[in-house]
């Protein structure tokens, strides 16, 4: 989950910074209660919420409320995990991917999401694929911790 900094709150309430409509909307969605995946779901398909979130963090408007890791590295890791799931399971990966998208961005939450995704894959697709995928995803998380 993400939170607005003092500068971010100031930008929302006083409009003292020249933010694009898209960035302002993304900043409004950041409220310390909303998951990154929810922000993506609420944004228009033409927008680039990842880019906006990274720029808002870089400019000091938001920060990671769960850990001290920068949002950029957490989002990048989450995207890598999703890409790996899609690589291992070219079709019908939505439920497994959603578990990762809906997790918080800290390593412990991502590991829980990976475990849940792999349990789902084990039950619906293949035990071997689930085992290989869990090993690969856990390795990615550990490399980024």
How would you sum up this structure, described in words?
It is a single chain. The protein has 145 residues and is mainly alpha-helical. It folds into 2 domains: 63 residues; 74 residues, no CATH class. Helices cover 67% and strands 4% of the residues. It has 8 helices and 2 strands; from the N terminus they run βααααβαααα. The protein has a two-stranded antiparallel sheet with strand order 1-2. Helix 2 packs across helix 4. The longest helix has 18 residues. The radius of gyration is 16 Å and the shape is elongated. The model has no long low-confidence stretch (mean pLDDT 87).
Distance between the termini: 17 Å
- Helix fraction, binned, reads 55-70%
Mean pLDDT: 87
Strand content: under 5%
The helix/strand order is EHHHHEHHHH
* Estimated structural class: mainly alpha
Counting H and I runs of at least 4 residues, what is the number of helices?
A: 8
Total strands: the figure is: 2
SSE diagram, text form:
Layout: E1 2-4, H1 6-14, H2 21-29, H3 36-42, H4 49-58, E2 62-64, H5 71-88, H6 94-101, H7 107-124, H8 127-144
Antiparallel strand pairs: 1-2
Helix pairs in contact: 2-4, 5-6, 5-8, 6-7, 7-8
Quick overview:
With about 140 residues, this protein is mainly alpha-helical.
Q: What descriptors fit this protein?
A:
2 domains; 4% strand; 8 helices; two-stranded antiparallel sheet; 2 strands; 145 residues; mainly alpha; elongated
């Amino acid at each position: 989950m993400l939170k607005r900094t003092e500068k971010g709150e100031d930008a929302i309430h006083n409009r003292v910074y020249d933010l694009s409509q898209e960035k302002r909307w993304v900043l409004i969605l950041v409220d310390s209660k909303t998951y990154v995946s929810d922000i993506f779901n609420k944004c228009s398909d033409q927008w680039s919420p990842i880019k906006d979130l990274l720029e808002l963090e870089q400019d000091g408007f938001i920060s990671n409320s769960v850990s001290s890791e920068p949002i950029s590295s957490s989002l990048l890791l989450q995207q890598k995990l999703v890409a790996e799931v899609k690589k291992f399971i070219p079709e019908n990966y939505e439920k497994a991917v959603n578990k990762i998208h809906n997790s918080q961005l800290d390593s412990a939450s991502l590991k829980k999401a990976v475990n849940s995704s792999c349990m789902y894959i084990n039950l619906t697709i293949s035990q071997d694929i689930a085992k290989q995928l869990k090993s690969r995803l856990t390795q990615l998380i550990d490399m980024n911790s």
